[in-house]
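My current task is to audit a protein record that another person submitted. My question to you is simply how this chain folds and whether the tokens agree. This is what I was given:
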Amino acid sequence: MDFLDKKKRLVLIAIAQKGTSGLTYDELLSTFLIFMTRNTLQSIIEDLYFSGYINILRDDKEVRLIASRKVRSSLVALDFQRYKLLKFLEEVKKKSEEISKLQDKNSQLEEIKKIGKEGLELISSGLLTLYKEFPEFTIPEYIEIVEVINNEVLAKLSPLITQQMTEEDLKQFLNLTSKYLGEKEAEVLSEALKRI
């Protein structure tokens, strides 16, 4: 599966957000000529049209670009997943205030772990949902949102919620390190892990 590049996704979103009435070619130009050349924009429109992602209607006065039903439906799914992520972040903010009031450190830790697991479940559920809805378009858009959440929230929680490696996992990890990074690197890593 090849994901659509950022330029195509931007144009497709602009067209799809106008719903069933679409966007006029002039409106599209006035929006995107600020940061894209006319040739680039024309090439993107051509690719989107021949891929079946947009329809082009022409009458006496104007040319209208309308996103296909598939694209508009996938945007519904994507925006709903965005909504769920924003709702989760609001919940995290509210819960973090409650957690900070807890006296017991173990209770705080357990609540923080719950938040992290909820976030990971929400993200994986969103990815699976969007995989069914034009993933070439929705997945990269969703990943951009998740990346921000990961950098701001989940990266700080992941050490708390990731499980310890089993002996078998550790052995496999060292084998892969040896295979891709070399024996010397694997030995250094093995020695470092023994000291921990």
